[in-house]
Each structure stands twice: as structure tokens, then as C-alpha cells.
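PROTEIN FOLDING TASK:
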Amino acid sequence: MTYCVATNLLQGMIFASDSRTNAGVDNIAKFCKCRILEKQGERVIVTLSSGNLAISQGTISLLLQRGRDNDQKNVWNCHSMYDVAILIGDCLRDIQERDGEYLKQRNIDTAANFIVGGQIKGEGPRLFLIYSEGNFIEASEGTLFFQIGETKYGKPILDRVLTPATSLPVATKSIIVSFDSTMRSNISVGPPIDLVIIEKDTFKIAVHQRLEEGDPYLNLVHHQWGEGLKKAFTELADMPWETNGNSVYPLVQTPDN
């Protein structure tokens, strides 16, 4: 299983992905699911992937191969992040067309999803979620972040914390908490965690950090967040119980009713 998340805020963008693949409890490996494409001063693009590893790797390899042909539109010369999303979707469809039917005949899931975001000179930062079929949607002020993979455990903290004006340090902290919640509930998600931060209008990577197993900050967040949740829970008011048997919704069947 995989967990990847990215957000587009007023100050910039944050991307994070785990590095664990799971083909059963006795076959767990580590593969980087984050790819950075950068031409400083002009464009910076980040992709995160989940799903069938061969399909996602094949898609990025084809994207880079086509990027060496300057006679056609490619990831290095296109004029918008929308064009980048189209290029990745096209590559994904081509790989699916080449391998998909053969794999499906052998009951192998060929689904692969991508988050792609970044900024190309002439437009603001943009973030897209690309589905396995090659179509995509774009983040907006009402949808500040995208997740792929094991999404359910890490979503609540992001819903509560992230707003367009959230600072990059605070947003980064919320994403690390999101990963901690996911890793606690699903052992198939785990470090290393690749973290990438892009500051708006800089057209370069501000932070690229890999948080390994046992990383001091990961351990600190795990401890402080866990203790903080326990403390907040104990301070919650107890629920007032109905004790007089006059509930509006009687659920107990008796001989008299």
C-alpha cells in the first residue's frame, strides 16, 4: 500500500510520499514514489504515484523519454501545468494500452494514480490528480489537497488544519501528523517519507528531505501527537445519560408494547 499527499497553498506547495510497497506480509520492499523535474528559474514539477508500480514507473519513464524529443510538446517545453497533466495522462494511457490487457488476463490490478503539481513561468502553482484512466481534476480553493493510496486515516487532520492561508511550516506539520495517523493504522505504509516543498514563484525546490525509519522528528511527532490526543480525550465532557426511561426513541421491546 502507498500513501501520498500534496497541497497547494498561497505560500507554495508541499508534496509527501511513503516508500513502501506491499505484495504480502513476507514481500515488503521500498521504492521511491516521488519524482522531481526542475529547470531552475523556469519550471519545477513534482509527481507522486500509487498503484501498480510497473505501470507508474513505465509512465514516468515514457514521459522522460518523450522529453528528449524537442520537436514535440514535452514536459520541458510545454507552457502550463495543465499541459503537463495531459502529457502524463497520455503516457499512462499508452502504458495501459501496451500492458493492461495482458496483466488483466492474469488477474493483476493495473490501476495507477498520480498527483502532479508545480509551477511553470507565466502562471501560478497548480496541482492535479490523475486517475488510472488518464483523466484528471485540478485542485481549487475548495479542494486544497489531494491524496492517493491509503487515504482515509490521514484525511481528518488535513480537513481541520489546512486553509489557503496556512503557512508552509504549519501545513508541513499537519502532513507529518497525517502520515503518523496512517502508519499507526496501516502497517503497509511506512518510512522513508519523501518530503518536497516549493515556495511560490521561486521555480525551484526549497526543501527536499527524506525522513527515514527512526527519524527524530517523526518520533517526536508520534509521541507528542499521541499524548496530545489522549489528553484532549480525557478533557472532553462526559455524555449526559438518559436515566428516567423517557427516551424519545424507545428501542427496547417489552411485554407492554
In short: The first helix runs from residue 53 to 66.
